[in-house]
Amino acid sequence: MNLIVATDYAHYAADVLRIIKNFQNEGNLIGPGTRNIVKWIIINNMTLNFKSFKQHNIINRHVYKFYRKSKAKRSFEYANLLISKNFYTPKPIAYVEFHDCIGLTNSYYISEQLEDGFTLEDVFLNRSSFEDWQEIVKGYTLLIYQLHEQGIEFIDNSPGNFLIKKVDNEYRFFLVDLNRMNFHDRFEIPDRFKNFSRLTNDPEILQIICKEYSLLSGISQEQCLKQIIKATNRQKTKRKIKKVLKFYKYFLK
């Protein structure tokens, strides 16, 4: 076992291990829990978020022990990196890895549970409930531009992975689901636009994003829109192919 706890939360170590030991019966489930299992649990009057990552096949178990950092470890390290660069993400508390002779068996990432917020997906799906939804979309675009300028590619750039809170009349965007990021010395323009491929197909939202990114970057709005639509269509094609392959795989068992 490997347990790493943030310095300010070292006193949570025993509680974290106790909860993980009985994780199946502890806490309150967030979402369907069909892949990764996420729960919120209160410890010492602080609400924490526990994410248990899906168990890997035997090959990946070996890879994640000897050749690659676990998703839990990456989540913890990337959270600290983002905070060091003045971006927002729920406070990283700890991560835990369990191994056997073959490789990684289980891993958990523990962070602060963000209360009283909403997701960017909520905004996209229920615009009528947000009078200033266009300003929220512009705020999201500024965040992505700032990440790109620092060479950070947030691969899971989908609307459900941005939690939003209004603090002092300003919207703060908290990144979650952090285990997949790339870091570039020079983040080329075509690759920046590919980073939007998982976001949305909504033309009105894309127009706002492209206009704002154009103002921030000096790239023409037309080029922004063309490249993002191209990346989005490629992603849609990949998803269709993946569904077809899953269909045939199911019937060829």
Task: Show the helix and strand layout.
Elements (H helix, E strand, L loop, with lengths): L1 E4 L7 H9 L6 E3 L6 E7 L2 E7 L5 H9 L4 H14 L7 E8 L4 E9 L5 E2 H6 L7 H17 L2 E3 L7 E6 L2 E6 L5 E3 L5 H6 L8 H15 L3 H31 L2
Antiparallel strand pairs: 1-5, 2-3, 3-4, 4-6, 5-6, 7-9, 8-11, 9-10
Helix pairs in contact: 5-7, 7-8
3D architecture notes:
This protein is an alpha+beta fold. It folds into 2 domains: 2-112, Phosphorylase Kinase, domain 1, CATH 3.30.200; 118-241, Transferase(Phosphotransferase), domain 1 (Orthogonal Bundle), CATH 1.10.510. 42% of the residues lie in helices and 23% in strands. It is built from 8 helices and 11 strands. The protein has helices spanning 13-21, 58-66, 71-84, 120-125, 133-149, 189-194, 203-217, 221-251, and strands spanning 2-5, 28-30, 37-43, 46-52, 92-99, 104-112, 118-119, 152-154, 162-167, 170-175, 181-183. Strands 1-5-6-4-3-2 form a 6-stranded antiparallel β-sheet, sandwiched between helices. A 3-stranded antiparallel β-sheet has the order 7-9-10. Strand 3 (37-43) and strand 4 (46-52) form a beta hairpin. The radius of gyration is 20 Å and the shape is globular. The protein starts with a strand and ends with a helix. The model has no long low-confidence stretch (mean pLDDT 92).
